[in-house]
Amino acid sequence: MNPMNQPIVLTCDGFPFVFNPSACDTCGGYCCNGESGNIWVTRREIVALAEAMGMDVPSFVDRYLKKVGYRTSIGERCEGDNYACLLFDRKKGGCSVYGARPAQCRSFPFWDYFKERPDEAEAECPGVIRLKNPGDTDEKGERLRQRDGEGDDMKFPGDFPCTAHLPI
Ligand code: SF4
C-alpha cells in the first residue's frame, strides 16, 4: 500500500494483464497449490531459503528439495487431488518463506506461459486484472508513469523486469 492507501499494481510490458499483489493477502495460496509441478531453485536461492527456515543447508535440502534430472525443485505434499508446495504454510494460508521465495514465485503471474493464456492466469489468481485490449499494457504503463514519475522499478532475480504503479 502507498501513503494514500491505494493498492499498487505490477505491470510487465507485453502482458495482457496487470497484477494486484494485495490480493495475496486473502487468496489462500492458489499459486502454491493445485496441479503437480516444479518450483525450480538455484543454489543461491537454496541458501536463502535454508536461512529463512532457520536450517542448515544440508538439512533443508534433505527435507524440502527434490532432484528432477539435473535441476532442483521444492518438493510437494500430496493432499487428495491437491499438490501443495512443501513450504506452503496451511495454517497461515501463505508462504512460510515469503521474503526468500525463489524467482519463479516472485515473477508469478508474469510467466511466458500466461502471456498467451491470460484466461488461465485470471482463473488461477484473483490478483490478475485483464486489460481490455491487447495493446493496453504499454499504454496503461505509460499513462501511469506520467502520473507517478517512473514508479518503483522492481528487479527480480534473473533480470525479470517489473514495475510497480499507483494505482490502476
Ligand atoms: S516457495 Fe512459497 S511462494 Fe513459492 S510455491 Fe512455495 S509456498 Fe508458494
Note the topology.
Layout: E1 9-11, E2 17-19, H1 24-27, E3 33-34, E4 39-40, H2 43-52, H3 57-64, E5 65-68, E6 71-74, E7 76-79, E8 82-85, E9 88-89, E10 94-95, H4 103-106, H5 112-115, H6 118-124, E11 128-130, H7 136-148, E12 152-156, E13 160-165
Helix pairs in contact: 2-3
The structure holds iron/sulfur cluster (SF4).
Iron/sulfur cluster binds next to loops.
**H/E series, N to C?**
EEHEEHHEEEEEEHHHEHEE
What shape does the CA trace take? globular
Most strands sheet: 3 strands, antiparallel
CA(first)-CA(last) distance: 13 Å
Query: What spatial order of strands do you see in the largest sheet?
Result: 1-13-12
Give the radius of gyration. 17 Å
Structural commentary:
This protein is an alpha+beta fold and 168 residues long. The chain has one domain. Helices cover 30% and strands 26% of the residues. Helix 2 packs across helix 3. It is globular, with a radius of gyration of 17 Å. About 12% of the residues have low confidence.
Short précis:
The chain has 168 residues and is α+β, with helices and mostly antiparallel strands.
Main traits of this protein?
168 residues; alpha+beta; 7 helices; binds iron/sulfur cluster; three-stranded antiparallel beta sheet; 30% helix; single chain
